[in-house]
Amino acid sequence: MTIEETPGGTPRGRRRAARGRADRASLLIVDQHPVHRAGVRALLEHEPRIEVIGEVDGLAEAIESCASLAPDVVLFDVDESPAETVEDMRRLRREAPDTALVVLARHEDDEEVFRAVLGGASGHVGGHAAPAELIATICEAAAGGEPIQHTIAERPSVGRRVLEAYADLALRTPAASEIELSERELRILELAAEGKTNSEIGREIGVSEHTVKGAISQLLARLRLSHRTEAVVHALKLGWISGPRIQPERIRDPRRR
User: Fold this and answer.
1) Residue 159 lies inside a defined structural domain of this protein
2) How many structural domains compose the chain?
């Protein structure tokens, strides 16, 4: 296992407390190619909103590192067996639920996006994307957003496949009549379906970002799901919420902070 940790890297809470600020997203880079990994790191280290705290060769190492480094985001450069990649991404999401996963794909086809969704990624960036788009995606994911929903909105065929892939959710979760959601919980799901971050959802309904994060975690536990995207798809299928109303200007806008 190869791990290169930034000097002074500590779990997220202690690191941020020592720094006295919480305006930088801590990032762990996952890429098995040292040259490419160094290039990504060099790019992101000049971004004031991102703090690169370590590098690893693969997702197996990333899962171990998340326990000690507690990054806000894991940036994963896809270059492995598709089946193993999806399973490893899902394992990372299970074992590090507070860490967002952003996929940096060499290819930008629908299949890569679909696998990222199945793996529980919060964001997907193609290899030909502008650096500003990669940075914006990382920052949005670190803030609790689901920028991958913007990507899905641009690819209707992927959206259809996602609905089909989660068609068995109703069989794996309690029946709709057995689940009672409050008006606030339903509103949170509606706003999540629009791709809003936890902070934006909190401002919309008048609660803190921490309260929103807690509410989503409780919903996932009650629905026996592991990821916010699954909860949104489930709510749409059961008719708890209407279809997402993503604002055009929110989709793939590299200038968005």
Assistant:
1) no
2) 2
CATH number of the domain where residue 173 is located? 1.10.10.10
Cβ within 8 Å of residue 240, ≥6 positions away: 176, 181, 186, 189
Reported pTM: 0.64
Domain that holds residue 20: 3-148
Residue 256 domain-assigned (yes or no) = no
Secondary-structure percent of the chain, ordered helix, strand, coil, rounded to 5: 55, 10, 35
- The verdict on 127 and 30 lying in the same domain is yes
Separation of alpha carbons 27 and 23, rounded Å? 13
Q: What is the pLDDT along the chain (257 residues), one digit of tens a residue?
A: 444 444 444 344 444 444 434 578 999 999 988 898 999 999 998 899 999 999 998 888 999 999 899 999 999 988 655 656 788 888 888 888 889 999 998 777 788 888 888 788 889 998 788 999 999 999 999 988 888 878 877 787 776 776 666 655 444 555 444 577 888 988 998 888 777 778 889 999 999 888 888 888 888 888 877 677 778 777 776 778 775 544 333 333 333 33
